[in-house]
Every structure is written in structure tokens, then in C-alpha cells.
Amino acid sequence: MPFVYERTIRLAETDAAGIVYFANYLGLCHEAYEAALAAAGLPVQSFLGGGDVIVPISRSSAEYLRPLQCGDAVRIAVTPSRLSATSFAIDYAVTRLGPPAKSAARVRTEHVVTSRSAKSRVDLPPALAAWVDAG
Q1: Buried b (16+ CB within 10 A) or exposed e, 100-124
Q2: What is the CATH classification number for the domain harbouring 115?
Q3: What would the pLDDT profile of 14-57 be if each residue is shown by its tens digit?
Q4: Which active-site residues does the annotation give?
Q5: CA 101 to the chain's CA centroid
Q6: Peptide bond into 67 cis (omega under 30)
Q7: How confident is the model over 103-119, as pLDDT tens digits?
Q8: SS3 call for 132
Q9: Are the C-beta atoms of residues 35 and 29 closer than 8 Å to each other?
Q10: What is the mean pLDDT of the chain?
Q11: What domain range includes position 49?
């Protein structure tokens, strides 16, 4: 079952035309990813501190279906899935809440679990693997 994150679009996320700047969709999705990890007891700081395991994004894609504007309430559904022993994907469904609710974007990020010291791929840590596999 996907994790659901809701928030309101802020003025700073829009461009001169008053709609969310395309690159900011990735920021919105990453915010939802962090919230999903925190809700699962996996704070994102555990992948950024002095530890050896890092989880960089290796690929991203987005399909923009309708514009979002400042003040729009949105829901972002976060659905992880395993790609291999060392990688996983997250699919994001961005919905502008209504009435009526309308799909605004579909975004996907792919992540590779890496050893900082060995500079090579490693298996997903057990807690992260459990989160991904539960998605």
C-alpha cells in the first residue's frame, strides 16, 4: 500500500507563469520520500551521516499531466519497488485535490545502494529492504 503525503503548493515553487516549475516536482516527490521513510522509522539522515551506505538517485523521469499552482492542495502517493538486490524504484502519483481530484503528474526515481568506502553497489540494508518490499 502506498504512503500518502499531502501538502499545499507554495509560491516559491512556481515560475513566472504561476505554475509549479518542472524541476520542483522532483523536490516535492523527494519531500514525500523523506516523509515516507520517517513514517517507517528510517530517517533520511541515516543515509547521509558518517555511515558507509549511501542511496543516490541514479535515474529520474516525470510525466506532467496538468499544471499545479500556488495554493493547490496536493496528494503524493509514494510506492517503492525492488529492482534488484542493490537497487529500487519509487513511483510517485501526484494528485491535485479537488473538487474534483485530478492526476497532475507521474514521477519515478531509481536508487542504487552504494558503499561510500568501496565505491561499489551493496545490498539494500535490511530495514530499507523491508520498507521497499512492503511497498
Answers
A1: eeeebbebbbbbbbbeeeeeeebeb
A2: 3.10.129.10
A3: 999 999 999 999 999 999 999 999 999 988 777 666 688 899 99
A4: 15
A5: 20
A6: no
A7: 999 999 999 999 989 99
A8: helix
A9: no
A10: 94
A11: 3-134
